[in-house]
Amino acid sequence: MTTRDDIEAMIARVALRDHSAFSSLYDATSAKLFGVCLRVLNNRSEAEEVLQDVYVRVWNKAGTYSVTGHSPMTWLITVARNLSIDRLRARETRTGGIDRALDIVDDRPGPEEVAVARSARAAIDDCLDELDTARADAVKRAYLDGDTYKDLAHRYDVPVNTMRTWLRRSLIKLRDCLTR
Amino acid sequence: MTDPDDTFGDEALAAEYVLHLLDADERRSFEARLSRDQDLRALVHRWEALLAQLGEDVPDIAPPQRVKTAVLDAVGPPRKTGRRFLPGWPALLGGLAVAGLAAIVLLTNVLGVGRDLEPAFRAELSSEDQSVVLVASVIPATHEIIVEPVAGTPPAGRVFELWLIAEGATAPVSLGVLESDGPTRIRVPDEIAPGVRTGTVAVSDEPPGGSPTGVPTGSVLATATFEDL
Known about the structure:
The complex is a heterodimer of chains A (180) and B (229).
Chain A: H1 4-15, H2 19-41, H3 44-61, H4 65-68, H5 72-95, H6 111-115, H7 123-130, H8 133-144, H9 149-156, H10 160-179
Chain B: H1 9-18, H2 24-34, H3 38-56, H4 65-74, H5 89-111, E1 121-126, E2 133-139, E3 144-151, E4 159-165, E5 173-177, E6 184-187, E7 200-206, E8 220-225, E9 227-228
Antiparallel strand pairs in B: 1-2, 1-9, 2-3, 3-6, 4-5, 4-7, 7-8
Helix pairs in contact in B: 1-3
């Protein structure tokens, strides 16, 4: 099992252009980051391309990792998620915002892949449980599916303004729960 | 976009920024503020950390091997993992020399002379094309690292700087700037010294006087770990 310290040490060595540390970092973290890319993009070939960009970014930015003050997985997940969302938004611009519901693909993780996940529930899950189901869902959709306010308003059939107020309140509630 | 509900001000704005929910104009003006507002950056970092927990819950899915191949290709050729010190015939001679040295060390130990003042471990720092080769030897008793140039000098107007990444450390620590034309003796601060043996040393090229930022700014020419002598 690779620990947080192991991953931090790998990142520090990657900052010094250590290829073997980079290879180890990839081995230790790519399945998690690929999961994130695939979840956001819902398309295997795009997720593979973005994952490649993620690691090139990690290679180039490893030297600035420590100033973010993040845990290593937070940093890596944030990079993976941000690049995936950028790709998603670019795709929408290209296709003129065709409803993504149309390209739900079958390469969602299979049952055995799902089964290996979730050893421990993150604290955030308990706090999401305290929110109304739809609101918790909206937060997850914004983070993991890259839904925009427009997407969410459409989904929950409320005006965009209302959606924004809703989500903001949910986020603050979530933060309060996590920090108490 | 919409009339923002300003009840939660920057806190909510930072969350929306992290979620990529701001429209292009809002995002631009938020980023302009972010570049000069440390408190705002702290809010963004906090939201990133908080929301990344959602990413931790996503099931792992192993990517195909071709992605790793492409990633490694994209960052350049793999560094040779430390040229074997004195390969081939010279290795044998080197071995004999080491054996001889060990005998001498043993003798001096018995005699109680010069004990502890010999280097106990060493790392060879060689650049990928072998144009720069430095040997760093450590004398644990005095917390000294002696760096001897074997080949190569810094580019004109640049200096070599030595770095240590202690095991488990998140950032390199500067050990100092190296002389350009001869051995450099560096006294390692006491608090760093215990991490040297298991750490990684690296050499980068830097402006005169060394890196102005406290982290390597120029190219890192070589990294190496120590081996016991």
